[in-house]
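User: Sequence in, structure out. Go.
Assistant: Echoing your sequence, followed by the structure tokens.
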Amino acid sequence: MKYLFIAFALLFSACSILPQPPTQSKLFTMKSKFMKFSDVCYVSSDSFSTTLEIYNAGQAVDRIKIGSHICNNDGCMSKAAFNKMFFSSSYPETILENIIQGKPIFSALHVKKNSNGFTQNIYKLHEYDIEYIVQNDEIYFKDKINNILIKLKDYSNEQ
């Protein structure tokens, strides 16, 4: 009887373990009007969300999860509210997750593909002046009007 109980416990507990999405270590830099940060982060994505775990001096300082909302250690907010607070209200709601995943932004407006990735230069008078480059294992986003810089680079290539 004891062995039967152990067998059932192992069988059902193994079914409850969900596969974890692969995690990538990145050097992450973000500068905006509310945030200045540069250190290691861990990025994982699945079909429902993207998670960014941010570390500073080896200590976890924040965990940003982007799904239907953007959540961090302080709570959750809509993507539009997040953009308005931290970036620009004129940005599309998916901009942060697209940057983190290295995907085109603004519905792939002005995408110029090259052999190692792509570039986008997007300008709207008084709202944004964006240079966005995804090349090899590096992501670079700069908005000159809103003074925003985001860089992600594979950490494994830095060692």
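User: And one key feature?
Assistant: Confidence is low (pLDDT under 50) at residues 2-16.
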